Every structure is written in structure tokens, then in C-alpha cells.
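Just curious. Invent one:
>
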Amino acid sequence: MSSPADIIAQHLIDEALGTDVSASASWPVRVGFQPDEPDNAICVFDITGREDGRNMSTGYRVEHPGVQVYVRGSSYIAGFDKAEAIALALDAILRTQITIDSTVYLVQNVSRTGPILSVGVTGDEDRKRHQFTINATLTYREN
């Protein structure tokens, strides 16, 4: 079974907002680890989500796992524009099927927990890179 971060990363690749790390194009999408290269990059992390308790008749625990999409851009506008495109793509997810290998996941929805956050600059004077995050929870199941 894939993690929520894996599922969202695959969706970003499917929507052409980023590329598979094996491709040599810009904006590679990774899960859980962001190396220093390239300057324009995306990484998706699993983070704390939200619990809704449990269904009293079935005992089924209802939870909404959290994800964080980290965007690093070579300029403020490049990073912000990419983060905004990703945020809008997450907002548009509604009963969307996402396939990883041969497993199909049905993502009922993704709910952002706030606006795009600018989380500062990394690098030195010669190579500043601007960082942004988008935090969200999702509801999904293996189809």
C-alpha cells in the first residue's frame, strides 16, 4: 500500500505539475526527502492529519491523513507560481482515481488546511532558493 504522500506525488506527476525523478526535466517530484539539486523541485511529506473519531455502529476509525507539499524555486515568483498551481490542483481533487503500479486509489477529496506558506530562503548569496509549503488532509481508499 502506498502512503498518502506517494498518492499525492503521483497525482502531481499525472497532472504534469512535476516530473518523475527518473526524467531529466525540471520540477522532479520526490517523497520524504529533498536533495540539494535541482533548484526547482517538489517534495511531498506525510504529516499529522486529523481524526474524526470512530463510527459507533461499526467501530471503524475515521481519519484524514495529512500531507505537506514542499516547493523550492530558483526565484520567488517561480516557486510561488508552482505552489499556486499545485494548490489549485489539490483543490480540484474530487473522487479522483490515482494509480500507482497496479493499485488504484480513490481520493474522495483533498482539503487544504491553510493558504500557501512562504517558509524562507535557503542557499547562499550566489544561489538563493525560495521555499513554499502547502498543507492538506485527504480522504482516500484503495479501490
Summary: The first strand starts at residue 29 and ends at 31. The longest helix spans residues 76-91. Residues 74 and 129 are 5 Å apart (CA to CA). DSSP finds two helices and seven strands in the chain.
